[in-house]
Amino acid sequence: MFISEKEIEVRYAETDQMGVVYHANYVIWLELGRTQLIKDIGFTYAGMEADGYISPVTNVNINYKTAVKYGETVVVKTWVEAHGKLRTTYGYVVEHKDGTIASTATTEHVIVKKDNMRPISLKKVNPEWDAKYIEISKDVE
């Protein structure tokens, strides 16, 4: 299983009145991690969009374990948890620099054609990308 890593410096604007990272910002961090994973394996989400496809999120699940505060640096670890004909599930761990887990998460995605929003398999859109996901996936559905 391939795991990508993306380091993030926590910005003041990402925190709430308590000085803790506001929960919704984790979704942005997950996107950064996912984008890094795609880049690390040789593809780009922008390239997929240029070809007329998008990959909307159909589900997000985040479990918050320990607080992250302004000035800290975290690492988002991302992998392909499961990859099937129409759905890909990514897994994530957000860790403090000392390895303490700040959160765990999963997101589920489908690929759709921009013009009609109908689901289409990654295998039809980009067979090489699909094969790479099968190769690095924790589970193939």
From TrEMBL:
Pfam families: 4HBT_2. Keywords: Hydrolase. The keyword Hydrolase applies. InterPro entries: 4-hydroxybenzoyl-CoA_TE (IPR050563), HotDog_dom_sf (IPR029069), YbgC/YbaW (IPR006684). GO terms for molecular function: fatty acyl-CoA hydrolase activity. Coiled coil: none annotated. It comes from the Bacteria. Belongs to the 4-hydroxybenzoyl-CoA thioesterase family. This is Acyl-CoA thioester hydrolase. The lineage of its organism: Bacteria, Bacillati, Bacillota, Bacilli, Bacillales.
